[in-house]
Amino acid sequence: MAALEKRGTNYRVCWRLGGSRTGARQSATFTAPKPAAAKELAERAKKLVEAHEHRITRDEVLRAILGEDDNIPDGAVTLAEWVKLWEADRRPVNPDAPGFDDIQADTLAGYMQVLNVRVLPYLGHKYLHEITESVLKEWVKTLKATRVRRTKAQPGGQPISANSVRAAHAVLHLVLGAAVPRFIPANPLARPAGTRKNRVGLPKPTPFEGMFLTPTEVDRIHACCDPLIQDLWFVLVNTGLRLGEVLVLRVQDVTVDGPEPEIRVRRALKKGDRIGLPKSAKSFRVVSTSTEVAKVLAARCKGKRPRDLVFPCPGKKKRRGAEPTWAENNLNRRHWMQAVAEAMRCDVHPPPAPPKPKRGPVRKLRPEEVSTCGCPGVLRRRPRLHDGRHTHASDLIRAGWQLHEVQDRLGHASPLTTLTIYAHAWKGKYRARLDDLGARRIAAEDEDG
Question: How much is the pLDDT for 323?
Fold first, then answer.
């Protein structure tokens, strides 16, 4: 609800765009020869704001109440109106079978979520020609001050991450770029030649922190996995496939006989348990497998039909038009988190037993209840299933694989992605090369001596 404040002989109306606590602050002050006249104008403005459900700006209120000329050019559209046109234009004609040139349905849904939460509440009311560099600077400044994840235990929430701010900037850059030259002559977020890179005050990105497990950690987790996901973890950590790619593998996508066993990545599990294309054209690939992985896959494929899933969700019946795929949240919560917790518990120093209730059975240990001892062999970190992919890529690099080979195997669209994520693995090889260089220098000095 808009607030009406008296400030001396003036009256001010305050509200937030969209009515949410994170909306941009707006205020309109009214002055008149008599305080009663100023109050009347402010009350009219307050009713106008509430009638528009707070989706009206200060300038629009002043124009409506005071009758100021807005000088809006013919054919101008607001950002909110353009986003609707942009979404309709980008939506795949056939969402169930999009082409590689289309934005996939889940990707477009992610873009729209960012726009609806981070962009439109602040800039949706503005006409495209009004979105200037100064407006964008103020928007970024407001985003950086946003608090998220408010709970009863933490009512103040947490500061928004730098990567979330940069993601909102990237999506808006994409949307405004599509409006050129139809509605605006140039993209205000594009960097003109010769200007500095960060003109709107974007925060520095948070460095990537993938988890790269040691062979001991991998084996420890494997031993603690229940039989339902043991083979799944083994395949993930030995092929580098994405979890969504493995969960929809069919028997016909796997070759386990012959001299070159392989996996053909043709599909991926999307949000909402929908099956679609892999992440990019590069992700549409063939991945060679080791003999051990081929044996595991052969056992999983035995007795199944070509279109059956290699890793179906147990107990989930196959319905017409839908395959019995795992739900990623269910897989993580019920199986993976339990396996990691078990790997973090020591047989000699187990965590304290849960308190016995007045009646009923004693509850099981929760995933966060683990050992705190320093005994060797006990897992000390909490990896994700996706960290199996990071671990495999790191192992490949240390084994001498070249950048383009790792990129092709992982299905990265750009070698820059591979280099950015796994640069640490190449750095780890410098020590051996430098030691070899030092040994050669010493040998040369001995020969000269």
Answer: 84
pLDDT for position 95 = 62
Element (H, E) at 115: none
Beta bridge partners, 275, equal 269
Residue 344 makes CB contacts below 8 A (sequence gap 6+) with 370, 371, 378, 379, 380, 382
DSSP-derived 3-state class of residue 147: strand
Task: Give the span between the Cα atoms of 318 and 308, in whole angstroms.
Answer: 10
- DSSP H helices, 52-94, are 58-66, 79-90
Would you say 80 and 112 are in contact if contact means Cβ atoms under 8 Å apart? no
Q: Which two tokens stand for residue 312?
A: 């179906």
Ranges under pLDDT 50 in the chain: 69
Contacts by 129-137, CB closer than 8 A, 24 or more apart: 129/73, 129/76, 129/183, 129/184, 131/79, 131/176, 131/188, 132/188, 133/188, 133/199, 133/200, 136/188, 136/189, 136/200, 137/199, 137/200, 137/201
Nearest to 2 by CA among 41, 46, 62: 46
pLDDT at 69: 47
Query: What does the pLDDT look like over 141-193, one tens digit per residue?
Result: 988 888 888 787 788 888 899 999 999 999 999 999 999 998 999 999 988 77
DSSP letter at 95 equals T
* Percent of the chain predicted with pLDDT > 90: 43
Residues 6+ away with beta carbon under 8 Å from 74: none
Percent share of the chain, pLDDT over 70: 93
User: Could you tell me the sign of the dihedral formed by the alpha carbons of 167, 171, 176, 178, in that order?
Assistant: positive
Task: For residue 405, give every residue at least 6 positions away whose Cβ sits within 8 Å of its Cβ, in sequence order, or none.
Answer: 396
Q: Check if the beta carbon of residue 351 is closer than 8 Å to that of residue 371.
A: yes
**Which tokens is 43 given?**
């009350």
Predicted local confidence at residue 432, as pLDDT: 67
Asked if 12 contacts 5 with a C-beta cutoff of 8 angstroms, the reply is: yes
**How far apart, in whole angstroms, are the C-alpha atoms of residue 306 and residue 390?**
30
Q: Phi and psi for 378 in degrees, rounded to 5?
A: -90, 135
235/246 Cα distance (integer angstroms): 8
